[in-house]
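Bug #77: duplicate submission created two jobs. Keeping one. Sequence:
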Amino acid sequence: MTFVVTEQCIRCKYTDCVEVCPVDCFYEGPNFLVINPDECIDCALCEPECPVNAIMSEDDLPEAYQKYIEINKKLSVSWENITTVKPAPPDADDWANKPDKFDYLKPYLDE
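Kept job's structure:
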């Protein structure tokens, strides 16, 4: 089992979760964070830190979010590791509870 960053993080990118990670398994892209599943030790410390509930256990993912398992794995090998909290984007609160944000991530999946 691993933890997975899901759609709620897109365009919000709050980084509260990264500082509590004991193995530094978070990676940062332009508008999203991901967890490297090969590095995650399933400690669950990050899950309650996310203000938009974007982090879920792989075992608890709804069917609609199953694709994020592979997305986290793919993007974590090409994005930069992040270990400290950074300011959220200026419009993060505006995006926090918006549904259907996947299209904003699609361009980065083709890199």
